[in-house]
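Honest question from a wet-lab person: if I give you the sequences of every part of a complex, can you actually get the arrangement of the whole thing, not just the pieces? Trying it with mine:
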Amino acid sequence: MAATAFSASKFTQSFSLNSTRSVDRPPLFPASHPLKTTPSSFLGSTRKLSLSSPSSSTSRHRRRPCRSPAVVAVSEVVKEKKSKSNVSLSNPLITKEEGLELYEDMVLGRSFEDMCAQMYYRGKMFGFVHLYNGQEAVSTGFIKFLKQEDCVVSTYRDHVHALSKGVPARAVMSELFGKTTGCCRGQGGSMHMFSKEHNLLGGFAFIGEGIPVATGAAFTSKYRREVLKEADCDHVTLAFFGDGTCNNGQFFECLNMAALWKLPIVFVVENNLWAIGMSHLRATSDPQIWKKGPAFGMPGVHVDGMDVLKVREVAKEAIGRARRGEGPTLVECETYRFRGHSLADPDELRDPAEKARYASRDPISALKKYMFENNLASEAELKAIDKKIDELVEDAVEFADESPLPARSQLLENVFADPRGFGIGPDGRYRCEDPKFTEGTAQV
Amino acid sequence: MFGIISHKLAASTAGGSPGQPILRAAVLAMMSNYSTATKQIMVREALNSALDEEMAADPTVFLMGEEVGEYEGAYKVSKGLLRKYGPQRVVDTPITEAGFTGIGVGASCHGLRPIVEFMTFNFAMQAIDHIINSAAKTNYMSAGNINVPIVFRGPNGAAAGVGAQHSQCYAAWYSSCPGLKVLAPYSSEDARGLLKTAIRDPDPVVFLENELLYGESFPVSDEVLDSSFCLPIGKAKIEKEGKDVTITAFSRMVGYALKAAEILEKEDLEAEVINLRSIRPLDRSLINNSVRKTNRLVTVEEGFPQHGVGAEICASVVEENFNFLDAPVERISGADVPMPYAANLERLALPQVEDVVRAARRACYRSVPTA
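Yes, you can. This is the full assembly:
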């Protein structure tokens, strides 16, 4: 079980052979951006945009303070670009259709979550419900680049990931109400959204549990291409998880294996700075999560997760890398959740000033502002979308309300895919001998 | 030679559907002109051949675990597979049980059929979150949307002098969890048949082997060597028929039970030995029918006594056949201590043949019950 030690130079050497073009690429973001608001005091703030590629990781082997030369170099280039061009106003990053799509998706996420809160306090929803308000830019920014066949694996804060991936709002709402028309027939609940059709592989309650599952889905994609010879299989997997998870063993195990086997996966960290009441800075020895990527031989990127356009740029690059077979990427999105950890959390430990600061960077208002300033949409169009989404969410609630509760017989169903759980009999067919198999002593 | 003929047959039936093993065996016999004399193979070879045939038949089956590739398996169970199938189907993993087990579960959620090998099931405790929470529960949580056709296999239970952290038996832990199927083979026939079924099964299967059994040889018939040979899950086997006392056991303890039965024969007690084969689902009907016949029960297992497999069997029999029991159920299990290292203490901590014999005598009122 001894780890083999290797020298720093050997490490970087071997990786420079495989290194991506990222060494020569300029930083991802256009220099001046109308969305650039007052920088937060967060360590990895919008100022320090850093794409740390493997070959530049030589710097990390020599002891340096946080603000390493590699990062400074990048921001200098940014400053250069800033002075060079003022192009953003005349050259928007998105088309009108894309803008409207992004807006609609984010508003759907926001309205849905607000409605969830209302329904919870009315007693229609119960148990643990974790809301995504404020983080919509991450979900929308990434998932809107995926195809249906690409996979998403999430945590317990998965309603909006499900919606962005395409699971109908009706199905998600019914699932939350515990009705049989839900996407998992009411058997999963808020924290366990699964959809085979949309390739949403959950929905996991344990932090870090979804990361190996996502890595496995990426492994499948690579296996399909190389062993089963399905040449056009370039499916990418996205694993979403939080800042606390980045201290968990499974996270590191998967970074290692994903980089080792060059799996088509993007590890998306939704760093909202808080576990429940435990601040990220109190829990982590080095709070800059993006740095953990290069330690395992993959690029680590930090991005402002309150800005959907910036997230989109990074997502495009990271997903593109994975699709081309260049391996995994670790993307740290600095974001914030406007509500408590869950609906049971009174949210008393967070500083109201901090909350206000992030509320002013609301991704939906920011995108709205951007679209107005670049004449991509009118007030009326956006209001029409708002109204449409409101109606959609109301309809989802009505549908969920009217849906029936699961039948009693559903209790014992779906424990096994093999319907009676008996495997193969000597006659070669599945045994269905003991109908009492899953009943135990329960009387249904 | 047999192997070659089986392979040819397997190839011609494009993957070997799990049907009509008897017909196939007859065809085999005709084709090869051999008598149906039995052959002896080691459990290790039986497992290896099962893995080999299933990987040949279905390209989505792959093996992953520590040392399964270049080292040919920590216990040489995957010997020759790397050479045959390549490193992408026989994947050597880093020492990261939680990580690679989760990767296996994720791959099986998405269409492949992994076999995750644990060097021993003690190490699987680092991955037990994935075995229970993501493998066993996913089909239920997703209401049948996503099934997990994965096999977790490896040696379980005590070996010889390996100490407390390498000797625990996990049959009771895994079998208490709905959503898992738990199998424990004893002979080569069990090993082959159950492993093949496990790999073909669409649900998560925990396959508990035994390190000390790997090197033991058992006679196998032609039928067993056929590439479509499968044993049903949830069916126990009566290894030896009897009328005086029922002895249930699984894995290595079946051998002990059989030896005990031989000794009891000399005292005019005919024991019926049941090889459980499948711990979850437990073959309650077969056990209960046997107890109805003999009226006395002794359960034997290697694991810790509290909440063990024997406890479940006892409860099942008491619930269904209380009036048929002529004596209290005797449970033989490992001692209620972590496994000691010293050889004599280890012998005391594990069930021995004499313990089974004594328990059977007590159940038959041939000796005074212990306090």
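Two things worth pointing out. Confidence is low (pLDDT under 50) at residues 1-19, 28-35 of chain B. The first strand of chain B starts at residue 39 and ends at 42.
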